[in-house]
Structure formats: structure tokens, C-alpha cells
Amino acid sequence: MRKGITGKLACLAAGVTLAFSPAVTFAQAQGYPNKPIKLIVAFPAGGDIDPVARALGEHFQAAWGQPNIVDFKPGAGAILGTDFVAKAPPDGYTLLLCSIGAMTINPGLYPKLPYNVEKDLEPISLIATTPMVLVVNRTVPATKFAEFLVYARSNPPGKLTFASAGTGNVTHLTGELFSSVTGVKMTHVPYKGSAPALADLLGGHVNLYFNPLPSARGYLKSSSDKVTPLAVSTLKRSSHLPDVPTLDELGVKGFDVKSWYGLCAPGGTPKDIVQKLNAEVVRALNGPVFSDKLKGLGTDPAPTSVEQFTRMIRDETVQWAKIIREQGIKVE
Questions:
Q1: CB 266 within 8 A of CB 90
Q2: Res. 286: pLDDT tops 50
Q3: How high does pLDDT run on average in the chain?
Q4: What is the pTM of this model?
Q5: How many of the other CB atoms lie within 10 Å of CB of 75?
Q6: Of 5, 7, 26, 16, which is closest to residue 273 (Cα–Cα)?
Q7: Which of 12, 35, 97, 283, by CA, is between 20 and 30 Å from 229?
Q8: Each residue of 265-285: pLDDT tens digit?
Q9: Are 276 and 263 in contact (CB under 8 A)?
């Protein structure tokens, strides 16, 4: 008899928990945030994503009156910082400035990751995108893309060299994808980061580099006597380099690669909190202050729904895994 009563009480308690769980998460969202939010950046301070994180944190603080902390946890191709957020409490107070490498490239590049993107991370919204710029050193006798193709195809396979910020980096995979679809066989020269890659590009030690536009803009102006931008990698021209055509319009049909930044939370974060964060990010991106800061950095504001961002991550993961597999790319 006692067991029966105990069992009924347990079932009743479970039913009450289930019945009130939506109300509990709604209450969490209504009271959120009531303490500082920590924004994790999985790269060193001073990089392209640094000012994006700080500007977003400033918007959150203005909107909600809570302090924000930008915390840099670089290392292992953004794996360390990403894993830190994946294992953080799913309460909306530890968020990740997520990016293309950690979210869509690394799952196909590393046999074992300490986190699972689909299970351990919750996409909130895309924040900004930027094209890659195909930049050639003046050692390549070409100022137009058509001239570059003629020159590249008239040389032995592998004579042309292309730099990257590291094996498996988006600067590397964009070059591999370009090589695959154009038939231009190039030798990959990986560097430990973008700074040494740029130094050797400007010094004429490597022939070309697919550089994210924010870091390319400065030297394209200051060192225009040393390098030439031939194309951008997105389907649409960039308003930041309006005179530089897209690879698609130059005949490399369908070529569409962009680097991006977004906001993610630990897996299991209550949906109401995720939606509240999404709504605030979208509001920021549609307003003048945050969007103007992003445009000033050379990026394009790109608000999305949670569902759109989730779908984009899944699609890109499949795309990059295919390139990694076909090109036999491995990290040491």
C-alpha cells in the first residue's frame, strides 16, 4: 500500500514538474539577465573578432544594465574557448563569439573534438559576414583575374604558392576549394597565424593569399604597389571593395565562401533565453550604432533567426567536410 502511494506521489510530482517547466523557463527568461554576461572569444585579443565582441557587449550593457566581460581563451584553432563554453552552465551567462573554424571546419578536420557542435552548443544568431579577398603579390604578372588564370595555367602545377594562417584555417580551405574548382594546382604554405602570412605575401615570398576582408583593407591601401586584389569570394560584391569583382561573375560559377562571426550558447540553454538573446542581437544589428561599428570594421551585419543560423552551420559543416576529405587535409 505504501509503495502504491509513494509511486502515485512520484508520478504526481513528475507531472507537476513537467506541467510547470515551460513556466519556469519563461520566468528565467523574464528575469534574464540579472548578473554580468561573459562573452568568450576563442582567439587572442586584438584580432578581427575582438572589436565585434566588445561592441556587442556594450550593446547588451546598454540594453539590460548588466556589466559584460569579454574573456579571451585562445588556443588549438579555437577549440579551447569553444570547449569552455560547451561545458559552461547553460544559463545564458556564458556565451561564445562563435566563428566558422570552430563551428563548421573543425568537426570535419579533427577526428575527435572535446565538444559536439550540434549537442553542446546552441546557435543564437549570425552577427556579421565578410568575403575572402584573393590577393596576389606583384611577383605575379597579373592585374586582372583572367591574366592570373593564363599565367597560372602556363606554369608547372604547384609552382604558384598560396599562404594560409594555418592548416585547416578558412584561408587554407578557401584556397583548396579554389584550386579544386579551377584546376589551378598550387602549393600550400601554412603559417602560424595571419601576421607572418601577410608579411611573406607583402615581401613576395608567397604568390597569393585568400585574406578575410577586414584585415586586407589596410594593406591594400598602404601597400598597393606590392599587391593586387583580383576577386572576392562571395556571390555579391562587397560594399567595402566595390570595384573588385566576385569569382562568380569572373566565371567561377557558384563560388561562395565567407568568413563569419556569430553568437552561441552552451547546449541546453533554455529556449526562451536563446530567443531573448536572438531578439536583442537582431535589434542591435538593425539599429545604427552596432551595425555602423561592424561596417567600420569591414564586415556586413547579418541578423538571422535561430533556425536560419542553425541551418547555415549544418550546411557549411557538410561543405567543408567534403573539401577536407577530397583534398586529404590533415592536421598534425
A1: yes
A2: yes
A3: 91
A4: 0.86
A5: 13
A6: 26
A7: 97
A8: 999 999 999 999 999 999 999
A9: no
